[in-house]
Write a structure and sequence with these properties.
The chain contains eight helices and two strands; from the N terminus they run αααββααααα. The protein is mostly helical.
Length: 286
């Protein structure tokens, strides 16, 4: 009884603290020692075999048959151990690949955020530079002396809209047509001939800013068009209103005005005719 207790203390207990791979190696090493020990004992007990002693030779051969079985079992155990070891290695490789994939995804997401931040910063820098340039263009407008006094910059649009209304009234009273589209087209055509030099650059660059925002990849485009719209005075909006339904803006500028609610703050009561607002989609005002 004491022998088995000592055996357990010396062999079983140390195995409990080992990893599976370590105790597998220990067991295989023990089997190898036992096999070779057994072979050594057989040789010691059976050797030398006298010539012609068939019985002793048969016993000696049968004893090695046991060894053959042990070697076969040992080979099988080695194969099992190899498979186990390879599966452990494959498991570790899969875990490494999974960790690398997760790290790569995080790096890709972080890189995308950095690129988006750079692109957004670049867009804002360009947008506000364009806005400043548009104000420079506006301040450079000068219609000279008018009955109200010298007009420059934004004040010029007060004069522009008064003269546009005058042209509209003149066409409406003198031309044999009651179609508002035709009256507006004729009136704005005469107005444009007179002030194209002052207004051409202004409207082209204003359209370019709206188009730049439209074609950008920023998420909240309306936020920036609202900032731009807030820069426009009532008289600028009124002149722009008729520019967008004339031949000079109906194809390109009018769709942008409707998409970005450009005339949300338009003083509709100051239109040449209240029904002119029906020439736009409701989205231009709402």
């Amino acid at each position: 009884m004491k022998f088995f207790v000592d055996l357990r203390n010396r062999i079983v207990k140390p195995l409990k603290g080992m990893k599976p791979k370590h105790w597998a190696i220990t067991i295989l090493g023990g089997i190898v020692v036992l096999v070779f020990g057994y072979a050594a004992i057989l040789l010691y007990l059976s050797w030398p075999i006298a010539f012609g002693n068939v019985d002793k030779a048969g016993v000696f051969g049968d004893s090695f048959g046991i060894l053959t079985s042990l070697f076969s079992g040992l080979a099988f155990a080695g194969i099992v151990f190899t498979i186990f070891q390879q599966s452990e290695e494959l498991k570790l490789q899969r875990e490494d690949l999974r960790a690398q994939r997760e790290e790569l995804q995080l790096s890709r997401a972080e890189l995308k955020n950095q690129v988006d931040a750079i692109n957004h910063q670049g867009f804002e820098n360009t947008f506000f530079q364009m806005l400043a340039l548009h104000n420079d263009i506006l301040n450079a407008i000068d219609v000279g002396s008018v009955p109200e006094g010298d007009a420059t910059g934004r004040d010029c649009f007060v004069t522009f809209y008064k003269r546009l209304r005058h042209e509209y009234g003149h066409v409406k009273n003198t031309k044999p047509t009651d179609r508002e589209n035709e009256i507006i087209e004729l009136a704005y055509g005469e107005f444009w001939k007179r002030y194209q030099t002052d207004l051409g650059h202004y409207f082209r660059f204003l359209y370019t800013i709206f188009k730049f925002v439209k074609e950008s990849e920023v998420e909240d485009q309306r936020q920036y068009t609202n900032i731009l719209r807030a820069q426009l005075s009532d008289d600028e909006l009124l002149v722009l209103f008729y520019n967008c339904i004339s031949e000079y803006g109906v194809e390109k500028f009018k769709p942008l005005a409707e998409e970005f609610t450009l005339f949300n703050n338009l003083p509709k009561q100051r239109l040449c005719q209240p029904e002119h607002k029906n020439l736009y989609k409701p989205s231009a005002f709402e």
